[in-house]
Design goal:
The protein is of the alpha+beta class and 254 residues long. The chain contains 11 helices and 7 strands. Helices cover 33% and strands 15% of the residues.
């Protein structure tokens, strides 16, 4: 497992939205200029009147830094080892095929289930309802989403396969019986953003999220990261029984 803390072995600095002591001075200066103007204006970062047109310049403050993020999923033991060795892949039909075939080969699902999962998923040619999920990895940016409610994270942690597999299926209970809930802590390069339409998407905008954190507001932060995460970018893989997972009292335990 990789070195944790605020710095990777490579020397890249990790920025954690929940810990302002890890923020570069440029990020602190940007957020501080909005604090006095916006204090008391709202309880939610998404409603802050921080200009959206400034987000692109704000992202550039993260060049030479990495952003801490959390991927919520459910994994079989061999998948955990895959991620340690290879990192996180973006959503694709090939990824679904590898996961389903791997589950079948290890006895987690039977042949009939394997065939059904390979033919009916959100990226299958005859479906495609969730084509916008292809080519990305979904993250949350603040532990607040895990601390205060399980509504956002729990479905991802309770059901194996991710939304691109389980969202259009009626037999979710079966997929809830395999694997273990897992938080994957990653360090992401968001300063060098791919060009549109592969651009990473933050909700709320990244500058609003950090200003909200500086103001002590309720923040969550979703990131649709449109690139794979290499193995060296995976900081920790947490499951029930790990202290850092168990600190989040609302998360599933099995």
């Amino acid at each position: 497992m990789m070195t944790t803390g605020t710095q990777l072995a490579s020397g890249a600095h990790i920025v954690d939205v929940d810990d302002s002591t890890t923020w570069p001075s440029t990020v602190v200066n940007y957020t501080d200029k909005w604090v006095q103007r916006l204090r008391g204006s709202t309880s939610y970062a998404t409603d802050l009147e921080v200009p959206l047109e400034e987000e692109e310049d704000f992202r550039r403050l993260f060049v030479c830094h990495l952003l801490r993020a959390i991927h919520c999923t459910r994994l079989l033991p061999h998948e955990r080892e895959w991620i340690r060795a290879r990192g996180l892949r973006t959503a694709s039909a090939d990824l679904i095929a590898d996961r389903v075939q791997g589950a079948y080969e290890r006895g987690a699902i039977n042949e009939e289930e394997c065939d059904a999962l390979l033919s009916v998923h959100a990226l299958a040619p005859r479906h495609g309802q969730m084509g916008t999920r292809e080519g990305q990895v979904c993250f949350v940016l603040s532990r607040q989403l895990l601390d205060h409610s399980s509504d956002d994270a729990a479905p991802l942690l309770r059901t194996w396969g991710g939304e691109i597999i389980y969202m259009i299926r009626s037999d979710r209970k079966r997929l809830q019986s395999i694997g273990s809930p897992t938080l994957i802590i990653a360090a992401l390069d968001v300063g060098a953003d791919p060009a549109p339409p592969q651009r990473h998407h933050f909700s709320p905008a990244l500058n609003r999220l950090f200003v909200g954190a500086r103001l002590g507001l309720k923040i969550g932060g979703n990131l649709f990261y449109r690139a794979a995460v290499p193995a060296q970018g995976v900081l920790e893989i947490l499951q029930p029984g790990d202290a850092e997972y168990d600190r989040h009292l609302f998360l599933p335990r099995s």
